[in-house]
Structure formats: structure tokens, C-alpha cells
């Protein structure tokens, strides 16, 4: 049997009906849905490549849109955390530095993934017909599958711990679920 007492206590600190929390959850769920739908649409129609004059220009524009949406998502996540109560028992140096370490590892995975894949490899270039010469198997791909997704999730987890935020932890679970669904959809 699972002891749900900790989850019940955590939910006691989170107002899931708060507008900021709802907006954050929706922005988290929207991002992977958006880029997967747009990329598959491009793959089937080549419409973006035609509009932008080349697959590279279209991929760069989609990448810019994804980056902008990620900024919006991060802002909404942060605002939702700030508007909800902290968990006092976690508002200490140990939790803060643990969160900082988790965020650092997540950042390492995200940055190293980007460096290994390049811009078009990171931002769905394969859907635009921009293929890499071979599959990337070096770090961080040698350590785990989808390091960009799990690195990003780790950043949000660390950020939540640094802010002793139960709302942040719940939103991090939304991030993880959204990425899990995206991986299933992409696979």
C-alpha cells in the first residue's frame, strides 16, 4: 500500500484553482503539444518551408517560437510558485542547495544536448528534412534517453526545491507528465 499522507499534506499547500497555477499548467502542457503538431504538419505539408523560403529558415523560426514559448512557460511557472505558500520545513539551506545541484545537473543535460544536436537537431530539423549524418550517441545521450526533456524537468524540480514550493513540485510533475506523453507521441 502507498502512504498518501505526504501527497495530501502537499496538496494542502497548493491552490490548484488559482488562475496563475492554471495558466502555468496549461502553458506547460501546451508547449510539447504545439511543437509536435507543428512539426508533424510541416513534415506532411512542407507549408512552413514554402512560406519561409527554405527548410532551414522555417526550422529557425519554429525554434525561435519554441524558445519564446519556453520563456513564457518559465515565467508562468515562477509566478505560480511565488503566488502560493512555501513549505516552511523546506525553506532552509540544505533544500536550497539540493535544488541548486539538481538544477545544475539539469542545465548540464540541456546545454550538452543542444551542443551535441545543434540548433536544427534540437528544434525538430528532421521534420523539415534537415537530417544529421548519424545518430548522436555521445554524452548526454550515452547516459539517458531524451536528456533535453529530463534535464528541463530537473531544472524545474531544482527551482521548486530552491523556492520550497509545493506548487512548483506539482507543476514539475505536470512537466514530467507532458514530456512523457511527448516521448510516447514522438516515438
From TrEMBL:
HAMAP family in the record, alphabetically? PLMT
Tell me the pathway.
Phospholipid metabolism; phosphatidylcholine biosynthesis; Lipid metabolism
Q: What is its EC number?
A: 2.1.1.17, 2.1.1.71
Q: Where in the cell is it found?
A: Endoplasmic reticulum membrane
UniProt cross-references to InterPro entries, sorted A to Z: PEMT/MFAP, Phopholipid_MeTrfase
- Catalytic reactions of this protein: 1-hexadecanoyl-2-(4Z,7Z,10Z,13Z,16Z,19Z-docosahexaenoyl)-sn-glycero-3-phosphoethanolamine + S-adenosyl-L-methionine = 1-hexadecanoyl-2-(4Z,7Z,10Z,13Z,16Z,19Z-docosahexaenoyl)-sn-glycero-3-phospho-N-methylethanolamine + S-adenosyl-L-homocysteine + H(+); 1-hexadecanoyl-2-(4Z,7Z,10Z,13Z,16Z,19Z-docosahexaenoyl)-sn-glycero-3-phospho-N,N-dimethylethanolamine + S-adenosyl-L-methionine = 1-hexadecanoyl-2-(4Z,7Z,10Z,13Z,16Z,19Z-docosahexaenoyl)-sn-glycero-3-phosphocholine + S-adenosyl-L-homocysteine + H(+); 1,2-di-(9Z,12Z,15Z-octadecatrienoyl)-sn-glycero-3-phospho-N-methylethanolamine + S-adenosyl-L-methionine = 1,2-di-(9Z,12Z,15Z-octadecatrienoyl)-sn-glycero-3-phospho-N,N-dimethylethanolamine + S-adenosyl-L-homocysteine + H(+); 1,2-di-(9Z,12Z-octadecadienoyl)-sn-glycero-3-phosphoethanolamine + S-adenosyl-L-methionine = 1,2-di-(9Z,12Z-octadecadienoyl)-sn-glycero-3-phospho-N-methylethanolamine + S-adenosyl-L-homocysteine + H(+)
Listed GO biological process terms: methylation; phosphatidylcholine biosynthetic process
Q: Which GO terms describe its molecular function?
A: phosphatidyl-N-methylethanolamine N-methyltransferase activity; phosphatidylethanolamine N-methyltransferase activity
Q: Give the matching Pfam families.
A: PEMT (PF04191)
> What is this protein identified as?
Phosphatidylethanolamine N-methyltransferase
Q: Which residues cross the membrane?
A: 20-39, 94-119, 167-185
Q: Which organism is it from?
A: Cettia cetti
Amino acid at each position: 500500500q502507498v502512504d498518501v499522507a505526504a501527497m495530501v499534506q502537499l496538496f494542502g499547500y497548493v491552490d490548484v484553482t488559482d488562475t496563475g497555477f492554471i495558466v502555468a499548467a496549461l502553458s506547460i502542457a501546451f508547449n510539447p503539444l504545439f511543437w509536435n503538431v507543428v512539426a508533424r504538419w510541416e513534415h506532411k505539408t512542407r507549408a512552413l518551408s514554402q512560406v519561409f523560403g527554405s527548410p532551414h529558415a522555417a526550422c529557425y523560426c519554429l525554434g525561435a517560437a519554441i524558445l519564446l514559448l519556453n520563456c513564457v512557460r518559465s515565467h508562468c511557472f515562477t509566478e505560480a510558485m511565488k503566488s502560493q505558500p512555501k513549505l516552511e520545513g523546506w525553506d532552509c539551506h540544505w533544500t536550497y542547495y539540493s535544488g541548486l545541484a539538481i538544477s545544475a545537473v539539469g542545465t548540464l543535460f540541456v546545454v550538452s544536448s543542444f551542443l551535441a544536436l545543434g540548433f536544427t537537431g534540437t528544434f525538430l530539423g528532421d521534420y523539415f528534412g534537415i537530417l544529421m549524418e548519424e545518430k548522436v550517441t555521445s554524452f548526454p545521450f550515452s547516459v539517458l534517453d531524451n536528456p533535453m526533456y529530463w534535464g528541463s524537468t530537473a531544472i524545474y524540480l531544482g527551482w521548486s526545491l530552491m523556492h520550497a514550493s509545493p506548487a512548483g513540485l506539482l507543476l514539475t510533475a505536470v512537466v514530467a507528465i507532458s514530456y512523457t506523453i511527448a516521448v510516447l507521441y514522438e516515438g
